[in-house]
Amino acid sequence: MNKKIIAANFKMNKTPAETQNYFNVFLELLGEEKFVDLNNKDKNKNSRKKLNLINSEIIFAPSFTSLLETYNRIKNYDGSVKIKLASQNVYYEKSGAYTGEISIRMIKECGCSYAIVGHSERRCIFNETDEMIGKKIKAVYDDSRNNNPDNHNNYNNDNNYNNNINAGVIPILCVGENLQTRKKGMESGFVSNQLDKALISLKARNIPALIVAYEPLWAIGTGVPIAPEDGETMHRFIYEHLNKNYKIEELRILYGGSVTETNIKPLVKKEHIDGVLVGGASLDPVVFFDIFKSFV
Ligand code: PGA
């Protein structure tokens, strides 16, 4: 059974000190005993909750300046839920005169197991093109293959915190249509085109692991998430498209856009929705913990 994923995208929020405060609260809430106390009255229920915890994974994507701070906090967490680190972006060149950019090696050394690629804010505000996103995806897989040619099993290795330099970073590839495109009923074609352009270098290659985040632009930060049935339709379409055209060993598809503790449950109950990517509602540790509780 694939792990269900709940990812937090802090965007351009939280200094290192604020990140530290966040994890003081969040990790305290996550402490197993407290978690059980908060949620369960009887023993049987406790054990069911624990099983669910084992099958879930939390990913935090703080700002670059808080990556190390976050890594230092989560690496010592030894509860049953897996907690991993993601960068919000990465550049495709290895090093050089690219002021303001960050390399794959840099994020790996900060402890990242994942990198968000092609978030709609990168596409819309910073003019990232499909071509650039394709180069980033290629660079991420080239890096893991070059550093670790025989061992793609290091993907998702639960103990890879000290190993990140040799392990592969898994991209969290964001796609999604705007309102106009959806109103015209052209969302499937739009999203499959984004996927194909991002994965253009991987047609004939084996892809050990990929996370896609389907985030319709009209749902991001608007308070209006997709209806679960529409989400399921789109996620099933993405699954079918990718399975038909690519060789992906471990594929998971997250939904993102105005996820809160009140709407997460019906979304993640859907067969093809493997988890969520949460923006605004992840910024308060108590609120994000509530979302996590509704999720497991
Ligand atoms: P939101 O953002 O949860 O604030 O809508 C989601 C995202 O942009 O990843």
CATH homologous superfamily heading: Aldolase class I
Gyration radius, rounded: 18 Å
First-last Cα distance = 14 Å
In N-to-C order, the SSE pattern is: EHHHEHEHEHHEHHEHEHEH
**Overall pLDDT confidence:** 89
Task: Describe the protein.
With 296 residues, this protein is α/β, with parallel strands linked by helices. It has one domain (4-295): TIM Barrel. The chain has 12 helices and 8 strands. Strands 1-2-3-4-5-6-7-8 form an 8-stranded parallel barrel, surrounded by 6 helices. Strand 3, helix 5 (104-109) and strand 4 (114-117) form a beta-alpha-beta unit. Helix 1 packs parallel to helix 12 (285-295). The structure holds 2-phosphoglycolic acid.
Question: Could you provide a short overview of the structure?
Answer:
By secondary structure, this protein is of the alpha/beta class.
How do the strands and helices of this protein lay out in sequence?
Layout: E1 4-9, H1 16-30, H2 32-39, H3 43-54, E2 56-61, H4 67-74, E3 82-87, H5 104-109, E4 114-117, H6 120-125, H7 130-147, E5 170-175, H8 179-183, H9 187-198, E6 206-214, H10 228-245, E7 247-256, H11 264-268, E8 275-278, H12 285-295
Parallel strand pairs: 1-2, 1-8, 2-3, 3-4, 4-5, 5-6, 6-7, 7-8
Helix pairs in contact: 1-4, 1-12, 9-10
Bound molecules: 2-phosphoglycolic acid.
Keyphrases for this structure?
TIM Barrel, globular, 42% helix, 296 residues, alpha/beta, 8 strands
